[in-house]
Amino acid sequence: MASNHHFTIGWISPLPLEKEAARLVFDEEYPQDEVQHKGVFYLGGRVGVHKVVIGVQRRIGLSQAAILAEKMSDGFPNIKYFLLVGIAGGVPRYGPAGAASEIVLGDVVVSSPRGNHGGVLQYDKGAWQGQGRLNFRGHTNGVPGDLTAAVNNFRAEGWSKTNIDETLKQMRLKLDEMRQGQYDDPGPIRDRLFKDSYEHQGTELDDCKVCCDADNAVSRLDRGEPAARLIDKPSVHFGNIASSNQLQISAVERNRVHLEHEAICFEMEAAGVMEEHPCVVIRGICDYADSHKNKGWQNYAAATAAAYAKGLLSMIPAIDVTDDGDTASTSSHQPARYSPNVTFGSHNSGQQAGVIHGGTFSWGK
Ligand SMILES: [Zn+2]
Q1: What domain range is 190 assigned to?
Q2: Ligand 1 centroid to 201 CA: how many Å?
Q3: What is the CA(203)–ligand 1 centre distance, in A?
Q4: How far is CA 206 from the centre of its chain?
Q5: Spans of biased composition, class Polar residues (predicted)?
Q6: 92 CA distance to ligand 1 centroid (A)?
Q7: What does the pLDDT look like over 272-302, one tens digit per residue?
Q8: 173: Cβ–Cβ under 8 A, 6 or more apart, which residues?
Q9: Is residue 139 very low, low, confident or very high in pLDDT (cuts 50, 70, 90)?
């Protein structure tokens, strides 16, 4: 049993399906009715040396993420870091010509400073610049130094310590018979990348297999060696994440934001959390941020993100909490709070966008 003061890691799951994957990485889960604040129940458990509290949003979007982070900070005053762990859309290809990296479905993107951005940039739809166009709205705070160090240390260790495949195995062992297969890797055949100019032909709910012409898609098998990966061996990519209240649903917009700001991932929550809280964003890629959404990859992408997050937690030293409930490293009776650090462009000492492949590690340019 842990009191609210013993939790030092806040884990935000924007969607219930992301929470279901997240709880599978607990080494120990606390009774559900014992982890609550002001009548709201959270999932609490232990991951390695950390006591982790998981909150799920009521609705999607930046402000809902901000509200949840604020409530969790209030109820669990010794949260030192937040992890925002979920699914998102990815750019299919990034990096310099000749040394481009491919993102494929099931891969993981981790927020990491790039160019003038601290790892997350906020977008919103600006009516004055034309319908549907997403406009850069502002920077968010960078990831705080010690959390960046954990990400970089983990990154430098490469695939051998990432252990996503091993963690996925352990997660599946916890599933009952009804859910066997829920987090299986859908495989390369079900990873279809449509041409940028070919829009989704059905309704939002229709699977592309039914409504879209396969002749306009390239399967992962046909995308060449850089897109190849073995079952349960997702690559981990480090770069900027574009965060917006509007879902990114156009290949053209995706490509433009990618070129202008080196964003490699699109989602709807991170900017809401990072403005006020120390946070690293971890996203499993379930689609290519175009009009061809489908649910086929969501569970697996949620699982690979959660598995990576567990590995990252293993790189963060235990955060001591004294018996009276303070974190030992802070002055007495001061909860661990984030001091925003708005120094963009200063994070780039040798850390560029890069990728850990299932087997090898390579830096970006
Ligand atoms: Zn489609």
Answers
A1: 85-322+354-363
A2: 6
A3: 9
A4: 25
A5: 327-344
A6: 16
A7: 998 889 999 999 999 999 999 878 999 999 9
A8: none
A9: low
In a domain, 12, yes or no: no
CATH number of domain containing 92: 3.40.50
Q: Cα of 292 to ligand 1 centre, how many Å?
A: 4
Residue 341 has pLDDT above 50, yes or no: no
| Residue where the block lists tokens 């009774």 | 31
Q: How many domains does the chain have?
A: 1
Q: How far is the CA of 207 from the centre of ligand 1 (A)?
A: 7
Ligand 1 is an ion; residues with CB less than 5 A from it:
200, 208, 212, 292
47 lies in a domain?
no
Sign of the torsion angle spanned by Cα atoms 303, 305, 310, 311: positive
Closest among 137, 133, 136 to 253, alpha carbons compared: 133
**Distance between CA atoms of 45 and 54, rounded to whole angstroms?**
8
Q: What are phi and psi of 174, to 5 degrees?
A: -85, -5
Mean pLDDT, residues 31-35 taken together: 91
pLDDT digits (tens, 9 = 90+) for 39-93: 999 999 999 999 999 999 988 899 999 999 999 999 999 999 999 999 999 999 9
Q: Is residue 259 part of a domain?
A: yes
Residue 254, CB half-sphere, CA atoms under 13 Å: how many? 25
> With the CA atoms of 321, 64, 151 and 46 taken in that order, what torsion angle do they form, in degrees rounded to the nearest 10?
40
Distance, in Å, from the CA atom of 23 to the CA atom of 311, rounded to the nearest integer, reads 14
